[in-house]
Amino acid sequence: MIKSQVKAIVDRFFEEGVSSSLWSDRLRDRYSVEVPKHQGQGDFATNLAMVGAGIEKCNPRELAARFIELAGEDHPVIERWEIAGPGFINIFLKKSIWTTILAEINRQGEGFGLSRQGQGKRVLVEFVSANPTGPLSVGHGRNAIIGDSVARLLEATGFQVHREYYFNDAGRQMRVLGESTRARYLEELELEHQFPEDGYQGSYITDIADQLVQESGAELKDAPVEFFKEKAKEAIFADIDATLKRIGIAFDSYFNEHTLYEDGLIDDVVQSLKDQDLVYEQEGAVWFKTSALGLEQDRVIIKSSGEPTYRLPDIAYHREKFKRGFDWMINVFGSDHIATVPDVLAGVRALGYDDELITVILYQFVTLLRGGKQVKMSTRKATFVTIDELVDEVGVDALRFFFLMRKPDSQLEFDLDLAKKQSQENPVYYVQYGHARLCSIQRQAAEQGVSLDFSREVELGLLDQEEEYHLLKTMADYPGLVADAATDLAPHRLIFFLMELAGNFHSYYNKHKVLSDDRELSAARLYLCHCVKTVLKNGLTLLGITAPERM
RNA sequence: GCGCCAGUAGCUCAGUUGGAUAGAGCAACGGCCUUCUAAGCCGUAGGCCGGGGGUUCGAAUCCUCCCUGGCGCGCCA
């Protein structure tokens, strides 16, 4: 916000310099305005002179001097310019500029930080997409939170977002699920049964069987596996939905892989590929000639049994996404799916679509830590930890916060003991506590009869403390940060921002009294606090985390 | 063997897409509550940014070769 103002000022002087032949226009758009790392290096800095020196083959500091001379001394926004280091131009703003952000925050309220950069663009976020073979586990949890947070970020920046869950309730996995359920059912009735060798051993299967016994007694003992499969699917989906709802996630649509078959879309894809000579038969199977599309090896798309492999419906599904007219399609996958991505993209390309419109977020694995030791998990033995158990233990806020503390590319260590702690070590509380403290100050002010109406005149010049200046600068960064986090699909940056802002506030709180006998000063500081509270709350809400008023 | 991801303080991780003197939290040590919430703050200590080479005014960041860990490389999804 303020940064873009400064960039505009630098741009204007740059153009003036071009007109006066101080430097050439080859430099245009090559330089940037950044926030310097250290204090004393100004509010902003530009590398214009250094980049320019490289192009013009001259001394960067000399070029910087020319720039500063051109810019002159008298300016409504800039206090002074300074040449530093190898040739940076450090830019010091008038202090009063920073307080202008307060009116902006106050005016926009909940809308502060939102933008329109994605306006008019429709984006599909496909995530979770777990098949209904069991409750959502920790790995799905990271998927769900990343996907939903990315969706929220995109919404915040003006995209029209559609959340979709893709699933498959046919195939071998599901058959085994039906068999497992039937076996448990018969077991309950103490009838003869055989539990499948690779069956699902989780206790949730027994729960479903129990339910069936209670509802129908022994009536179902001759019912086909298909029946049990359907029952299990319904129960498990209901369970998954409840879990998602609990952690604040709702989908706009569920896409059943099966519809692709019913609508003939699978055959259609095969035909299209055939037409392009990208398909051949070998040993009874149908192969996709991915090697002709620059990949390492060809892949089977239809097994000799006649069943397609996952690749084929995946390609068909993605073609449907394109047909539905999305401008951007985002998939959230665990890194174990890494091998499947290139094949699907190659298929999409072969069908004539631009695979650049698809972005795949591959997140690394989650390990749970309890008592400093890794919790061993195995899907087969059903010793996995479910999201529900996790929420029972640490709550929704900590769950969301912890899953977002790392970028997707990094493996994530989820420390249960830390997430549970209601103490200073827990970063969730650190941020939330900041918000609660701000609310407390406002309550106090209200009790003292101090006005919380900031539309009237407040003497902003009184906000001249170092810590106040930090808060203002940090808050001014917020809209740009949200915008960048959205385009880069990086919700973790927002987490780090919130910790920084909360930290700035805690320091301020401990050093300066907001409420005092000085009514003017109190009013100014209350105004500042009001804005900090707004930004903290906006950021937390954006990530689906609550901002408590008391703790 | 090949592909992708990671390797930064004792631990867990950021690092604004190539910028200045390397950052946070936790752990350690030392301080701060008769004053708006101590779920907080202040200070100290802690570094061959995995290693070598290269690119340039400038590298944790880009290229290359190694080392270590994770995930894959299926007519499973």
CATH T-level fold name of the domain at 2-93: Gyrase A, domain 2
Total strands: the figure is 15
- Provide the CATH top-level class of the domain at 2-93: Alpha Beta
Structural class estimated from helices and strands: alpha/beta
Distance between the termini: 33 Å
Mean pLDDT: 91
Strand content bin: 5-15%
Alpha-carbon Rg, integer: 29 Å
Strands side by side in the biggest sheet? 7-6-5-11-12
Helix content: 40-55%
Write the CATH homologous superfamily of the domain at 2-93: Arginyl tRNA synthetase N-terminal domain
**Tally the helices: what do you get?**
20
Model regions low in confidence, pLDDT < 50 over at least 5 residues: none
The main sheet comes to: 5 strands, parallel
Per CATH, which architecture of the domain at 2-93? 2-Layer Sandwich
Overall form = globular
Key features of this structure:
RNA-binding; 551 residues; alpha/beta; Gyrase A, domain 2; 4-stranded antiparallel beta sheet
Topology:
Layout: H1 2-19, E1 33-34, E2 44-46, H2 48-56, H3 60-71, E3 78-84, E4 88-93, H4 95-98, H5 100-108, E5 122-126, H6 138-156, E6 160-167, H7 171-188, H8 203-216, H9 225-246, E7 253-256, H10 258-262, H11 265-275, E8 279-282, E9 285-288, E10 299-302, H12 311-323, E11 328-334, H13 340-350, E12 358-363, E13 366-370, E14 373-374, H14 387-394, H15 396-404, E15 412-415, H16 416-420, H17 427-447, H18 466-487, H19 492-511, H20 519-542
Parallel strand pairs: 5-6, 5-11, 6-7, 11-12, 13-15
Antiparallel strand pairs: 1-2, 2-4, 3-4, 8-9, 9-10, 13-14
Helix pairs in contact: 2-3, 6-18, 7-8, 7-9, 8-9, 11-12, 12-13, 14-15, 17-19, 17-20, 18-19, 18-20, 19-20
The structure holds one RNA strand of 77 nucleotides.
